Each structure stands twice: as structure tokens, then as C-alpha cells.
TrEMBL record:
One MF term in the entry's GO annotations: manganese ion transmembrane transporter activity
Membrane topology recorded in Swiss-Prot or TrEMBL: Multi-pass membrane protein
Protein name: VIT1/CCC1 family predicted Fe2+/Mn2+ transporter
Classification via InterPro entries: Ccc1_fam
Pfam family, one: VIT1
Subcellular location: Endomembrane system
Predominant location: membrane
UniProt keywords, alphabetically: Membrane, Transmembrane, Transmembrane helix
Transmembrane annotation, as ranges: 166-184, 196-217, 229-251
An example Gene Ontology CC term for this record: endomembrane system
Length: 256
């Protein structure tokens, strides 16, 4: 235990030496794919298992459940990927619009924009000559000046936004995880109840594993995160089952 702690401290010291810091800061910031993968995986599993639950509750056959599940898997996965693409593209266009606006403000009222920089860093605790040097340094470089206004005044993330990458990651995760609850319906030798129970177990496992993945990435309690995701996914599936059962009972919808 002591040796492991020593190794971690040595690795931390190495990551914070001047050369390592310089290399890390010079690297282009990549698009974050983990949130897109988590979003796609959860929604894919919820979508297909909700279809399976609704079909089982309504008394549909395994074939109908499989066909509906595959249709929803492809259609909803594509729709979600497109929505994610458009959302991030719109965010990039919004940032570019703000960037153009800040450039125009610098051209028309440079002293006013310097005062904004001054007040921003005064709020961070800088005073006197130090504050004025910071204002002067930032305002000497137009690109740095604009980027500072985007991040400090508007709170915008200006890097790591890739609409295509996010869309493809969401779509792939949606298909991969969403297909899991449908696997029992591709196997012979199981009756409808056994297929549904197997699908239920697989979906629960997927929800729990996705929650654990979130805990590893975002440094949250593993068990708590897994159970939380499991409960949210289970609630969505329960609603779908209830809707299918009510439709079967009230309207006689179903296939024997």
C-alpha cells in the first residue's frame, strides 16, 4: 500500500514538471466522446427494452417484439445522432457569432473592452500594477483577447466540439448497447416469458455497467452510480410495460 502510494505521488510529480505541463497544454483539446457514448448507450438500452416491455405487456409475439425493437433501434439511433450533430453544430455557430460580435466590439470600443477585461480579473483578486499588466498583455493579442472574452464573459467552451464525432459516437453506442436486450428474441427454444426475463436481466446489466463507466470517468462512487442508472432505466421500462398492459386490457391490443 505504501509502495503504491509512493508510485502515485511520483507519477503526479512527473505530470507536473515544467516539460510535462508544457506538452499537455500544447496538445490540441480533443472532443469529449465519453458523454456522447454514455448518452447513446443509456438511450439505446432504454429504447429497445421499453419496446420489449411494452410488447410483452401487450401480449405481442416474440417476432413482433423483435421487429419493433430493431425498427426503433435504427430509427431512434439515427434520429438521436442527427439531433446531437445539429445541437453541437448550433453551439459552434453560436460561438462563432459571439466571436464576431466581440471582434466588432474591440474595433469599435477598445477601451470599453479593456475595462471588461479589467473588471473580470479584478473579480479574481488582481489589483494595481499586476492587474494593469494582465489587461495590457491580453489586449495586445487580438485572438487571446477574443478567446478570453468568450470564456470569461460568456462562459463558452471554444474547443473540443466536433459534431460529426459526437454523432457517430452516439449512434454507435446506441446500436451496440441497444441491441443487447433484443438478443434473447433471436434465440430459439425460449418461451415468451423466458425471453422477456432474459432481456430484463441483460438490460439491467447494461444500465448498471453504464453507471459504473460513468463513475470511473467522473470519479463518482461506483455502486451508487450503477444503481442510479439502473433505477432510471428500469423506471422507463416499467412505464412502457404498464402502457402496453393497459392497452392490452382496455383496447384489446395484442397478438396471441
Amino acid at each position: 500500500m505504501v509502495r503504491l502510494k509512493r508510485r502515485r505521488n511520483e507519477a503526479l510529480d512527473h505530470d507536473h514538471d515544467p516539460a510535462s505541463i508544457a506538452r499537455r497544454l500544447e496538445r490540441p483539446r480533443e472532443a469529449q466522446t465519453v458523454p456522447d457514448a454514455i448518452l447513446g448507450g443509456i438511450d439505446g438500452c432504454v429504447t429497445t427494452f421499453a419496446v420489449v416491455s411494452g410488447a410483452f405487456g401487450a401480449g405481442f409475439s416474440a417476432t413482433v417484439a423483435l421487429v419493433l425493437g430493431l425498427a426503433n433501434l435504427l430509427a431512434d439511433g439515427f434520429s438521436m445522432a442527427i439531433s446531437n450533430y445539429e445541437a453541437i453544430q448550433a453551439q459552434r455557430e453560436y460561438i462563432e457569432g459571439i466571436r464576431k460580435s466581440e471582434r466588432a466590439h474591440i474595433d469599435r470600443s477598445p477601451e470599453g473592452e479593456r475595462e471588461e477585461i479589467r473588471q473580470i480579473y479584478r473579480r479574481k483578486g488582481l489589483r494595481g500594477e499586476t492587474l494593469e499588466r494582465v489587461v495590457s498583455t491580453i489586449s495586445q493579442d487580438r485572438q487571446v483577447w477574443v478567446d478570453t472574452m468568450l470564456s470569461e464573459e460568456h462562459g463558452l467552451q471554444t474547443t473540443g466540439l466536433s459534431p460529426l464525432r459526437s454523432a457517430l459516437t452516439t449512434f454507435a453506442a446506441f446500436l451496440l448497447v441497444g441491441a443487447m436486450p433484443l438478443l434473447p428474441y433471436t434465440l430459439g427454444g425460449l418461451d415468451a416469458t423466458q425471453q422477456f426475463v432474459a432481456s430484463l436481466v441483460i438490460a439491467a446489466l447494461m444500465f448498471f455497467l453504464i453507471g459504473m463507466l460513468k463513475s470511473l470517468v467522473y470519479h463518482r462512487p461506483m455502486l451508487q452510480s450503477g444503481l442510479r442508472t439502473l433505477l432510471m432505466g428500469g423506471a422507463a421500462a416499467g412505464l412502457a410495460f404498464l402502457a402496453g398492459h393497459v392497452a392490452h386490457s382496455v383496447f384489446g391490443v395484442g397478438v396471441a
